[in-house]
Write a structure and sequence with these properties.
single chain, about 725 residues, alpha+beta, 6-stranded antiparallel barrel, about 20% strand
């Protein structure tokens, strides 16, 4: 049936084309008659003009008149496809606006830019700033209405009315309104908003020509060339802005109320903001889960063979091939392997190839050096902090010697190993993001736009999701909870590719290849389903999800099977959310029967414990092995202090941990100290009155004796004494 409809459609289109041409001719004659009527109106009065219009205008024009007012008043329908302003003025051809032939008003975004451009253009142009957007979506719910074809409710900030009034006053006596906002979709939207607001105030009549110009540099030639090539407002760019702004609004006003109810105290979650927060939190998780790997380097001092041994050249090289295989950083993983290579080096003869290798070709060393021939600015300025050269003068001398030796060597020269230096190293965790590094990563992933990065960083800090310490971004626990909540319940939104793919779709809208409302509808339907599913989760379920996700942080000194409430000895310590948005805490799950709170979690606690007690850059250290077992014991550092852990972190497994209290010298902690701490809690026996166990426990605060709800601290002096149950 579709094949039969094709020729019919073609005929219909042809017929419509003919009718359109006829109507265009008719409307042209009508317009001429209207102009004549308007001219006679000023001479003969209103009555004569009305008679002429009624006589010449067809009924169709009356309908257009009836709908003109509501179309102009409805903000959501200002972006018609026929013209940018709905007035038909886009059909007027634009002529170059430089050199000037009449007074023009130029609108740019900033006051600084306005002052510079005013000097370039002279008195025939009045350059005014709009100070960015003159209107935005109303800051309340239902400002974007998916059930009403995505209609929008706009509001004008108080300050923007002042800027619009300045433009309105300047347009008196002017013939051109030149909109020169930035050359991106946000700039295009600013121009569109200004034009719409002025049109609603009846400022733009038939005598004012509205033109759009763009320039990419603030120079006199660039400005004047732009004025010579005016264009109309690009509605494809405006539509891309409308799609982006609508989706950001829908996501923000969809997720934020859920956060308020499920995680009191967490304020908001925007589209790009959530992606940036996820990057910071994921990097923090990588740092925490990082397990250092041991590796060794083998550096060898070679000396050229000369008849006069005192004149031989020395150079240092690092092994890069062994048994004809290229070595990477972790190829030599133990001291035994390094020592075996050392023995083999001393038993070999080497010669200069492209690198240094033995005749068999199964062992190759690499050496490199450079020399600064032209110091440039360093001749008068040396940044010792940046270069660090003053701290290692011996290294500079060795580097210079290496350069001298390499420059004199030739291929096939024989060299002999003199000294072999074995170096033990451990891999380091990935670096946390700085603001610049995070922005660079977002650019690589296609997340956001340069104009939004500064505001994203500000929002993350204002919401207390992220703090900056020593120029490095650290996620607060509040921010990590929000990121985990989104990744668990809004997996598509939290995925990096979501924001990047959306930016690509918006670029397609800007190019005119994608219809913006169809795109918006597709995203909204998927997102609305996520909101419906998330609303079914109660707070207790969210708490359990977060407790499982962050158990190593919340309970660093307790295993999952030993979180018995010390107060009632019946309940279990759980992560809980304050119902009044005051914070989060670890408490007994038998509340309100048992009101025991083990620890509160707040931003202030994070700041104090992270900055005063422990450095955040501490690397996990292997202390040794537990006797008679192969279990490794590590010294680690978490958000709440140092602790001992048995075994490496494994997903789904809870490792035994023991906290450290009052650590003055971290390097002094030995495997014996760790094994002693891992014995706690110790069962001292059952109480004679009720047969409940009496335990000796250890926490960050020190040692204590616990019986049911009674907790007594143990004096430091008493720790030297072997405790028994019969001691009072």
């Amino acid at each position: 049936m579709e094949e039969k409809k094709v020729p019919t459609k073609k005929k219909t289109r042809a017929a419509k084309t003919g009718k359109t041409a006829a109507k265009a001719t008719e409307e042209a004659s009508v317009n001429q008659e209207e102009k004549k009527a308007a001219a006679s109106k000023s001479k003969k009065g209103v009555g004569t003009s009305k008679e002429k219009k009624t006589a010449t205008k067809p009924k169709r024009s009356l309908k257009a008149k009836e709908y003109a007012a509501p179309i102009a008043a409805a903000d959501a329908k200002n972006h018609t496809k026929t013209s940018a302003d709905g007035s038909g003025s886009e059909t007027k051809p634009l002529i170059p606006l430089y050199p000037p032939t009449a007074k023009s008003v130029v609108v740019v975004e900033s006051a600084t830019k306005a002052k510079v451009i005013q000097k370039y253009l002279g008195d025939m142009y009045e350059v005014l700033p709009s100070y960015g957007h003159v209107r935005d979506l109303a800051g309340r719910s239902r400002s974007v209405r998916p059930d009403d074809d995505f209609s929008m409710v706009w509001e004008v900030p108080t300050a923007a009315w002042t800027h619009l009034k300045s433009i309105k006053v300047a347009l008196k006596g002017a013939e051109n309104l030149i909109l020169a906002s930035d050359p991106d979709r946000e700039g295009e939207a600013i121009s569109w908003h200004i034009k719409e607001m002025l049109a609603q105030q009846d400022v733009l009549d038939g005598r004012v020509t509205v033109a759009r110009v763009v320039f990419h540099e603030i120079t006199e030639n660039a400005i004047k060339n732009a004025l010579m090539s005016p264009r109309h407002i690009d509605m494809d760019l405006v539509n891309a802005y409308l799609a982006r702004r609508s989706l950001d609004y829908l996501i923000g006003f969809g997720i934020s109320p859920l956060l308020w109810r499920k995680l009191p105290g967490c304020q908001s979650a925007g589209r790009v903001q959530s992606a940036a927060l996820a990057l910071v939190c994921d990097r923090e998780a990588e740092v925490e889960q990082f397990s250092p790997q041991e590796y060794w380097t083998v550096d060898t001092d070679f000396k050229t063979q000369c008849s006069d041994s005192s004149k031989g050249l020395c150079l240092t090289s690092r092994i890069k091939h062994l048994n004809s295989k290229k070595l990477d950083q972790l190829s030599i993983s133990s001291r035994e392997e390094a020592q075996a290579i050392e023995k083999r080096i001393y038993s070999c003869q080497f010669e200069i190839q492209v690198d240094i290798g033995n005749p068999e070709g199964d062992m190759t060393f690499h050496s490199s050096a450079s020399r600064l021939d032209f110091k440039g600015y360093q001749a008068v300025y040396e940044d010792t902090e940046a270069s660090g050269s003053s701290e290692n003068p011996e290294g500079e001398v060795a580097h210079q010697d290496n350069f001298e030796a390499l420059s004199k060597l030739e291929v096939k020269d024989l060299v002999s190993p003199v000294n072999v230096h074995l170096g033990q190293h451990f891999t380091k965790p990935p670096f946390r993001y700085s603001e610049g590094a995070l922005i660079k990563k977002m650019e690589e992933l296609g997340i956001g736009r340069p104009s939004t990065y500064a505001s994203i960083m500000r929002v993350l800090q204002d919401r207390k999701y992220v703090t900056i310490k020593s120029r490095v971004l650290h996620p607060e626990f509040r921010g990590r909870m929000v990121s985990a909540f989104l990744s668990h319940l809004f997996s598509e939104i939290a995925d990096y590719s979501f924001t990047a793919n959306m930016e690509t779709e918006l670029d397609n809208v800007s190019a005119g290849s994608t219809e913006w409302k169809g795109l918006l509808k597709d995203y909204w339907e998927r997102f609305n389903k996520y909101c419906g599913d998330a609303s079914q989760w109660d707070v207790r379920k969210v708490e359990r999800m977060l407790e499982e996700k962050f158990s190593s942080i919340l309970f660093p000194d307790l295993a999952s099977d030993s979180r018995i409430c010390p107060s009632c000895s019946e309940g279990t310590l759980r992560f809980k959310v304050s119902r009044y948005g005051e914070g989060y805490f670890i408490g007994c799950d038998r509340h309100p029967k048992c009101k025991y709170i083990a620890r509160t979690l707040s931003d202030e606690d994070d700041d104090n414990e992270a900055s005063e007690e422990t450095p955040r850059s501490f690397e996990p250290r292997l202390l040794g092995l537990i006797p008679d077992t192969s279990e490794q014991v590590f010294l680690k550092q978490g958000p709440y202090g140092y602790y001992i852990q048995v075994g490496e972190d494994r997903k789904g497994a809870s490792q035994k941990r023991a906290p450290l209290s009052e650590v003055k010298d971290v390097d002094s902690i030995s495997i014996e100290d760790a094994i002693e701490l891992l014995q706690y809690p110790k069962n001292l026996g059952n109480h004679p009155d009720d047969e409940h166990p009496v335990l000796m426990t250890h926490s960050k605060a020190g040692f204590s004796v616990r019986h049911r709800r009674t907790l007594a601290p143990v004096p430091k002096v008493s720790l030297r004494i072997k405790f028994r149950l019969d001691q009072q």
